[in-house]
Amino acid sequence: MNQEDLQTEEGVSRILPDTVVQAKMEAVKPVYLAGTVEGDVCCKSLLVIDPGGRVQGDVICESLMLEGRVEGNVEAGHAVLAAGAEVTGVLLAGRLEIAAGAKIGLGLKFRNVKNK
After folding, report:
1. Cβ atoms within 10 Å of 103's Cβ, excluding its own
2. pLDDT digits over 11-62, tens only?
3. Cβ-based neighbours of 2, under 8 Å, separated by 6 or more
4. Could you give the CA distance from residue 111 to residue 48 in angstroms, rounded to a whole number?
5. Distances (CA, A) of 3 to 6, 32, 80, 81, 91
6. What is the pLDDT of residue 2?
7. Using an 8 Å Cβ cutoff, are 1 and 9 in contact?
8. Spatial CB neighbours of 8, under 8 Å, sequence gap ≥ 6
9. Which residues pair with 83 in a beta bridge?
10. Can you give the three-state secondary structure of 26-82, one letter per residue?
C-alpha cells in the first residue's frame, strides 16, 4: 500500500491539514497524517506522515512512510524516509529506506528482524 492508496482506501484514519490532535494516539489500521499530533503515536499498521504532517512526540509503528517531521524518537519495523523527512530524536528500525536529504537528529539504530 502506498500513499496514494491510503488517500482513497476505506478504513484508513486521516488527520487532515490544519487539524491538531492534542492527545496520545493509538491505531490498529493505517493512518494518514497531514496535520499535527501533539502527543505520542502508536500504530500497529502503516503510518504515513505527508510533507505537511508533524508529530510532537514519539512514534511506534509497524511501518512508517515519513515525508514530514517527527519531533521525538521513532521505532518502526520498516521505515521509509523521503528527502524532506526529519526525525529529531533516535530512529530505531528493522529495515530502512532513506533518501538523500532526510535528517535524523540523535542517531540511528537497527534491530534484528527475523524473516517470517
Report:
1. 13
2. 899 999 999 999 999 999 999 999 999 999 999 999 999 999 999 999 999 9
3. 65
4. 21
5. 5, 8, 12, 13, 21
6. 47
7. yes
8. none
9. none
10. EECCCEEECCEECCCEEEEEEEEECCCCEECCCEEEEEEEECCEECCCEEEEEEEEC
Contact 66, 85 (CB under 8 A): yes
CA distance 47 to 35: 13
* Gap between the Cα atoms of 88 and 107, Å rounded: 9
**What does the block give as the cell for 98?**
532513506
Q: Which pTM was predicted? A: 0.88
Q: Are 58 and 73 in contact (CB under 8 A)?
A: yes
Residues 6+ apart with CB under 8 A from 114: none
| Model pLDDT, residue 11 | 85
